[in-house]
TrEMBL record:
Record membrane topology: Multi-pass membrane protein
TM region positions: 12-36, 56-79, 86-108, 227-248
UniProt KW Transmembrane keyword: yes
InterPro entries: Tetraspanin/Peripherin, Tetraspanin_animals, Tetraspanin_EC2_sf
Protein name, UniProt field: Tetraspanin
One Pfam family cited in the UniProt record for this chain: Tetraspanin
Family: Belongs to the tetraspanin (TM4SF) family.
Highest taxon of source: Eukaryota
Keywords recorded for this protein, A-Z: Membrane, Transmembrane, Transmembrane helix
Subcellular localization, as worded in the UniProt entry: Membrane
Organism: Cirrhinus molitorella (mud carp)
Keyword flag Transcription: no
Length: 251
């Protein structure tokens, strides 16, 4: 191959590696954001063991930083114009590529299981809210936080607590039809109308369900880990393709 064409391939590979390194670093940062769980919804998925979105985020933390470091090495390998370093680069990138594929696919498929409909989230809420176990305390704290911050009640509506059997119903019977967190609050966070909320007065309690909010948050997590991960994979695939062509043209 002509020296000019080979140099063009080299600079293209250097440029793609620079872009892939930046994309990998961004993936690393985004995956940390998901793993930290700023919305504090992990207990809702973790209580049943269906926490693959967060497991995928931890994989993406590794792959994102690994892409960053390997792409920097790839720039060195391309400039060196040597088969040995370039072959090592190709092997490392391919291994990381496979790990990131697993991360993106895991997050995407698990999201559909968690928020395909409200039944799964509702079941966990009814089963664990008010329970004295560690998991029950985590679920109770999470739901209390969501219901107060988002001003919602139950998964679909307050009727969830009445229609279905729940731990809360077993503990309190007719004394509390729904959690106190379903009651509207004053600016001091005291319950606005305890008596009205207890009997289901619409002006005294939150009437919308919390599931749309939970679905939105978990979808954001999924978009961050899976769909951004897929976009990084497409860039890396193009980089690997150019790197293989460059490798085969080296003398």
């Amino acid at each position: 191959m002509a020296a000019g064409t080979l140099s063009c391939l080299m600079f293209t590979l250097v440029g793609l590696n620079a872009l892939a390194a930046a994309a990998g670093l961004a993936l690393f940062a985004v995956a940390i954001w998901v793993a930290v769980d700023g919305y504090k919804l992990y207990p809702i998925s973790g209580v049943s063991g269906k926490d693959d979105i967060f497991a995928a985020a931890w994989i993406a933390i590794f792959t994102g930083f690994a892409f960053f470091l390997t792409c920097l090495y790839g720039i060195f390998a391309a400039l060196k114009r040597s088969h040995g370093p370039l072959l090592l680069y190709l092997i490392l990138m391919f291994i990381i590529f496979l790990f990131e594929c697993a991360s993106a696919i895991t997050a995407a498929t698990n999201r559909d299981y968690l928020v395909g409909n409200s039944n799964f989230v509702k079941k966990q809420m009814l089963m664990h809210y008010g329970d004295s176990s560690t998991q029950g305390q985590q679920i109770t704290q999470t739901w209390n936080s969501v219901m107060q911050q988002v001003e919602c009640c139950g998964a679909d509506s307050p009727q969830d607590w009445i229609i279905y059997n729940s731990t809360l119903k077993q503990l309190y019977g007719q004394q509390y039809l729904w959690p106190q967190s379903c009651c509207k609050r004053q600016s001091t966070f005291d319950v606005l109308d305890p008596a009205g909320c207890k009997v289901g007065k619409i002006s005294s309690m939150y009437t919308k369900g919390c599931f749309p909010y939970i679905e939105s948050v978990l979808s954001r997590y999924t978009w961050a880990v899976s769909w951004y991960g897929f976009s990084v994979l497409m860039l890396v695939f193009l980089t690997l393709l150019i790197a293989m062509i460059y490798y085969m043209q080296l003398e």
